[in-house]
Amino acid sequence: METPGSQTSLHRANLERVVRAVRLAGSLTQAEIARSTGLSAATVSNIVRELREGGTVEVTPTSAGGRRARSVSLSGDAGMVVGVDFGHTHLRVAIGNLAHQVLAEESEPLDVDASSAQGFDRAELLVKRLIEATGINPDKIVGVGLGVPGPIDVESGTLGSTAILPGWSGINPSRELSGRLGVPVYVDNDANLGALGELVWGSGRGVKDLAYIKVASGVGAGLVIEGQIYRGPGGTAGEIGHITLDESGPVCRCGNRGCLETFTAARYVLPLLQSSHGPDLTMEKVVQLAREGDPGCRRVVADVGRHIGSGVANLCNLLNPSRVVLGGSLAEAGELVLAPIRESVSRYAIPSAARRLSVLPGALGARAEVLGALALVLGEMGDSTLLDSSVPAGSPAFT
Fold first, then answer.
1. Backbone Cα Rg of the chain
2. Which of 314, 318, 160, 148 is nearest to 234 (CA)?
3. Edge-to-edge strand order for the sheet containing 358-361?
4. Which of 46, 129, 333, 372 is at a distance of 20 to 30 A from 286, taking alpha carbons?
5. Burial class of residue 181 (count of CB atoms within 10 Å of its CB; 0-12, 13-18, 19+)
6. Close Cβ partners of 92 (under 8 Å, ≥ 6 residues apart)
7. Which is more confident, 341 or 115?
């Protein structure tokens, strides 16, 4: 039996520290492991050797700073994770391994507002289809990350706003999908997962404080403070779409008037152009036309950018992030939307906060949320099962 403070328990703790560092980063050199864990180089070398012999990690030659080094990653067969992203108009599923490699990914159209049962039926089928297509052993799946387009109540685990997803009232997404798939399910809203995806693999790499702004049928922000997603005590942090811009403005679905969402979200913006551009207009089409020089679409995109910038300025004054990443289809407009955002931030934010802020488009596009769902599992799962099994080696690269 292990006792606290014994050599056995200390060794076990050091094993878990190394595995956790590698799991979160995807791959690290032994020198990087030593720096991130605080362990000595000799201790790391011995632990890596032990983990490699047990099949938990694999080691490949690499270089760091022009010098030869060894890159350590978890074995590609050490376990599998699944990401599920529910958007208002789509369902996207990805399967990856603990070495941060995506093995399969697929999306399909879905009206998530219609019925939660239909949504979970489709998600279950798509997950099982991808598992079969990849030929992986379902027993290897250690968890599922699930993104939904609405705030999650921290205490109950249910969606916190029936105004956003009325067909999901009273539903606990984690419990529902876990019951269908038989594995742990970690759930978060789509903006938080977009922030996590960009933080780990996209435009947020290298910073500890950022805001990921997603503009689609609604407007949300995923907030990262000191390298961690900040959800707030009730799970509703980041609802930037309901900052009031005009107390006499349009009535928002939340019941207030003049929310940021009523000036920027697709459901409010598209009617401005449908009389001249047709009823089938989408935000993706608006962005495309704006890039091609359409004056009406360019004006609408610029106006949306200025309004988003007003909300971002409020975030700057309150949280002082170092980076804002714009996600969703609107980010494809590039400087047509980013320049107006920066203009509003410069006008309304505290100068010292505005000077330190960079505003960038997301690097992951529509994949940000589902990759964030994979990252959520990689961050939440424990390490004990990895240390208690011996598996063959796999692949080190996230693609």
1. 22
2. 160
3. 228-230, 219-225, 210-215, 323-327, 358-361
4. 372
5. buried
6. 83, 84, 85, 105, 106, 107, 366, 367, 369, 370
7. 341
What are the residue ranges of helices labelled H in 57-185? 116-134, 173-181
* Cα separation, 101 vs 96, whole angstroms: 5
CB atoms within 10 A of CB 47: 22
What is the predicted pLDDT for the residue at 390?
40
User: Residue for token digits 């080691």?
Assistant: 59
pLDDT higher than threshold 70 for residue 228? yes
Amino acid making up residue 189 = N
Q: In this structure, what token pair is assigned to residue 242?
A: 């309901």
What's the pTM? 0.84
Two tokens at 170?
A: 């009273």
Distance CA 342, CA 356 (A): 12
Which residues, including other chains, have CB under 8 Å from residue 9's CB and lie 6 or more apart?
A: 2, 3
Distance CA 48, CA 33 (A): 10
Within 10 A of 244 (CB to CB), how many other CB atoms are there? 13
Nearest CA among 253, 89, 240, 86 for reference residue 166: 253
What are the start-end ranges of the E strands in 216-357? 219-225, 228-230, 323-327
